[in-house]
Every structure is written in structure tokens, then in C-alpha cells.
Amino acid sequence: MGRITLDKVTKSFGDVEVIPPLDLTIEDGEFTVFVGPSGCGKSTLLRLIAGLEDTTSGHICIDGNDATNVPPAKRGLAMVFQSYALYPHMSVRKNIAFPLRMAKLPQAEIDKRVEAAASVLNLTDYLDRKPGQLSGGQRQRVAIGRAIVREPAAFLFDEPLSNLDAALRVGMRLEISELHKRLETTMIYVTHDQVEAMTMADKIVVLRAGHIEQVGSPLELYKEPRNLFVAGFIGSPRMNLIEGPEAQKYGCHTLGIRPEHIEVSADKGPWSGVVGVSEHLGSDTFFHIQNTGLAETITVRADGEVGFRHGDRVHLTPREDVMHRFGADGLRMA
Amino acid sequence: MATKASRSAARLMMAPAVILLLGWMLVPLIMTLWFSFRKYLPLRGGDLGWTGFDNYVRFVSSSAFWPSVQTTLIIVGGVLLITVCFGVLLALLLDQPMWGQGVVRILVIAPFFVMPTVSALVWKNMFMDPTNGLFAHLFKFFGATPISWMSEASLPSIILIVSWQWLPFATLILLTAIQSLDSEQLEAAEMDGAPVLKRFWFIILPHLSRAMTVVILIQTIFLLSIFAEIFVTTGGAFGTRTLSYLIFQRVLESQNVGLGSAGGVYAIILANIVAIFLMRIVGKNLDA
């Protein structure tokens, strides 16, 4: 079981307050992703939960028990580090068995659990190798294996995929999601990559400078970003943000419209501009439209077949039902 | 050095250095071998011609030979044990963040810059003198009888002095090794439930094994030939005669160059035996 509650948790390094008072509840079995730009305090928050950093004030409860001053090993959490932090002088088998050895389990039980974890993670053939002889993805799996043998209340992942190449990252993303479906254990995952957040999370926590900007499911965040920061952070390519007279026409200070919610055509539409750079992804094409008089560039998604060229004049039609209106304070207007 | 031309140019330019080093090594070696087969008594008739293996037989059959080998090994082993153990502990201590870190580190390294002769004399006269030494005063303060270090505990005294000289070297190398340890590994071990001592045993110590190997190999090379510390303290008396000191005595005190040279050849053999054992035991840490 792994229900984790943070109650007015703060963290300061010297005079610098990294995490201002923060409340958060992570339900049992939930896949929660902390996402935010680098330096937003998401890793610090994870380390506070892990117990690798002391809280300055506030309480952390795991399954209803106050764990604020419990040492990391006793919290029943397992962590996968960005650098994997495998023990280089031990074989894969010994790496995975290490937490069990420290818990003084009988050797037969250790062997059984290591074998089980290895078969889940396709590591059976590599058990006698050293971490130095493995590829990045395999090391990642060993690190996960070392976490799952402990049968922890929750898994903590600290940017685990940032050292992998793009193709491997997509694969590992699926593997971790599948692992979560199978184990149904609470997982907390830290990333700066909003694609990882959107694809894996049950619940996303968007952080900026230690503040929680919004908590919600991926679609909630996509459909109803609470403020301009979340609007700009979630979704790829970024939402177009339009200020000035055009926004006032819709009764707001800033008008947000996602690239996929603008139609582009050669002859009709209320907005017009000149095609700048176009990015062809095959299935989709992203046009960066300039000289619209609305914002510096407006990004538009079109079908992969649409073939405007650089310098073509085009017309744009925004879908009014999915527009986002923000007030002068940056908050979403109802 | 990719092309043929650059390779041969490189060889040509390295040649002077290689030839110089080779000469530096080969000339004394060949001279030692040459003299070891000759009866050469500088004050008693000079070079008296070939004697075959006489010098070798005499050197080994001398009652001083085996004790000197034993003394050499005890000093090397003792100093290695002390410097590596305390080096690890000191390195762990110096790795902790503290006020005045830079100054403390320089102070720790300082003994290494003191010449062996000087440091041995300082130890002998300032600390270990049975009447005026600091240790003697300390013993008297607690009402104990001062030890006459150089005669009653001669071997431990020399091991202590030499360890004091070499501890900074070991500490320095082990400290840099500790600093290169990835802190996430220690955190991972902490999360895996390893308390401080087990983290030291399972993570830090294996990480240090390579640095320890380097320390042991380098120190052994230098410790096999320590001389100054013995010369200025006991002068080889009280069971502190090492193999190199015995050779010195044969050549200069007995004025028997041939006999000393034969001892020199034995010293080379002993050094190689030690080297083979060391490479067997710790050398595998240098791979991978």
C-alpha cells in the first residue's frame, strides 16, 4: 500500500527557500508525474519523499504514518536514479540482490526473488555480467529490478530516461507503464519532458519554482490549463498565446489556442499570415506562420498532405469552442 | 599517430629519451653483475679477478642474510598496513565538508615534503629520545618508565617513522578516489537499507580498491629500498638491518664490492618476487 501525503512541506537550503509550503496527496496505486522546467524543485521534492533530504518543516505521511523523520531505508520506498547508481563492482545478480541481502533475507528467498525480477525485466541472460558490460537500456532495467525486488510501497523515479536515446526512451516508457499496470504500486516519476508526463501519468503535478501550478489528469491539464504557465508547458508544440486587441475581442487578456485547433486554408479565415518554417513529420505538418499581426509566430498543425510553401499567404480559422481565455493575472477565466 | 611517416618520426624523436633511460638503467645493472663475479676489495688489493659464484654463496650463507630479508619484509608490510588503513580513514575524514579544508589538506600533505633523513632525525631526537624526547616526558607524566625506543622497540619505531612519511601520499591518492565516487551510489545503497558501516564495506571500499592497488605498488617499490631512516637512527643495529642496509655495510663498511654486488643482485630478485606476489594479489584491480 502506498498512499503518500505531504502536509505543508517546505525545504530551504540556507536562506534559499526551494519548496514553499506545499500540500499534495498521492493515492495508492497512482502513477504520479512531477513535471516542470529544470530547477523547479521537482527532484528536491522527490528526494524529500525518499528521505534523502530533510524537510525544513511540515510532515510527510506514508500510509497514514508520519515518516518525516524516518530514515530512507525504513520508509519502504525504492528509488531509480538518473545515473542508475548501479554498483559497478557487483554483477547484475548481486546488484539486484543487494537490498535483500541488506534486509538479511534467507539466500533461497533472495535467489527466488532475483530470478523472478530478472525474468520480468528480460535480464536472465545478463545476471552474471557487470553493469559496465550492459547497454543503457539494460542498466536501466537492472536499476528497476533492484527497486522491484524489495516490493516497496512506492517507486520513485528521478528522470530515469534522460540518459537514453530517443528510440530507447519510447520503449522504456512503455515498459515502465506496463510494469505499473502489472504491479499496481504507487509510482512517483520526475521528468522535465512533458511528453513522458502526458503518456505515462494518471496524475500530473506541474511545478514551477517549488509551487504546484496544477494537479490533474493529463487530459484535464490539456483541456483546462489553470494558468498561462501550464498552458504553455503542456502540449507539443506549445499553445499559441495571443494578446492585444484580438484577445480583447474574445473578452480576455490573453487568448490561448493550440496549434491543432487552428485550420489553415489558402483563401478563407479571419486571420492571415505568411508561411515561415514548415516542419514535416509525415503524419502532420507544423507551419510557423508569420506576419499575422497577432503574435510573433502562430504555430498551426495541418495534415501531412497539406503543401504550403515558404512565403505563401494563408488564412487561419481558430476553433472557438476550444479556445482558452486568460485574465490579466494569468489565470484561466471561467 | 596515424600515418607511417608520423609513426617513424615519433620513434625517431622518442629515441634519445629511450636510449638515455635504457643507459641509465643498464649501465649500473651490468656493472653490478660484473662486480658480483669478481673479488674486489678496494682497500685490500683492489680488483683480484674472477671468483665465480663465491660472492653469491658467501652472501646467502652469512648469518645476517635471512634476518635482513625478514626485516625488509616486516618493514614493508607494516608500513603498507598502517598507511593504507589510516590513509582510508584520513581520506574519509578529509572528504567531509569542514571549515579550513584547504589549509588542513596542505598540512596533511606536509610530511611528504620533509626529507627522510630530516624526518627520521626529528623523530629520533625530538620524540623518541629516552631522556629528552616528548614521548619520554609523556611517559614520565603518567608515571611510567620511558621506553628507549631505538633499542627496545627499534623495528616498530622505524615503521612508525616511515609510515608517518608515507601516510600523506596514501591519504592524498585515496582522497581523490573517494571524491570521484558517485554520490547517487551511496544514496542508492542508503535507500537499499545499508547502514553507514555496510555502505563503507560494500560501496566505498570496493570503489577504493584500484587506488589502494596503486598506493601499495608504488609504496612497495620505494619501501624495499629505504635506507636513510635506518642509517640516521639505529645504524642497522637492534635487528633493523634490511637487505639494502646489509648491502651498504658489505660494500662500505667491509669494503667488499664484489660481495655487496652479489647482494644487490639478490635484492633485485627479492623485489621481483614481491612484485609478482603483489601483481597476483592486487594487480587484477587494475584491469577493467
Automatic annotation (TrEMBL), chain A:
Which family does the record claim for this protein?
A: Belongs to the ABC transporter superfamily.
- Per UniProt, residues of the ABC transporter domain are 4-234
Please state what the protein is called: ATP-binding cassette domain-containing protein
UniProt keyword ATP-binding present: yes
Q: Name one GO cellular component term.
A: ATP-binding cassette (ABC) transporter complex, substrate-binding subunit-containing
Which Pfam families would you find in this protein's record? ABC_tran (PF00005), TOBE_2 (PF08402)
Sorted alphabetically, which PROSITE patterns does this protein's record hold? Answer: ABC_TRANSPORTER_1, ABC_TRANSPORTER_2
Provide this UniProt record's keywords sorted from A to Z: ATP-binding, Nucleotide-binding, Transport
Q: Which CDD domains match?
A: ABC_MalK_N
One GO molecular function term of this record is: ATP binding
Q: Does this UniProt record's set of keywords contain NADP?
A: no
Automatic annotation (TrEMBL), chain B:
Q: What is its main location?
A: membrane
Q: How does it sit in the membrane?
A: Multi-pass membrane protein
Record-level GO BP terms: transmembrane transport
InterPro entries, alphabetized: ABC_transporter_permease, MetI-like, MetI-like_sf
Question: Membrane-spanning residues where?
Answer: 12-37, 73-94, 106-123, 158-178, 214-238, 258-282
**An annotated GO cellular component:** plasma membrane
Residues forming the ABC transmembrane type-1 domain are: 69-278
**Key word Transport present:** yes
- List locations, semicolon-separated: Cell membrane
Question: Which PANTHER family does the UniProt entry name for this protein?
Answer: ABC TRANSPORTER PERMEASE PROTEIN (PTHR30193)
Protein name according to UniProt: ABC transporter permease subunit
The species this protein was found in: Sulfitobacter sediminilitoris
**Classification lineage:** Bacteria, Pseudomonadati, Pseudomonadota, Alphaproteobacteria, Rhodobacterales
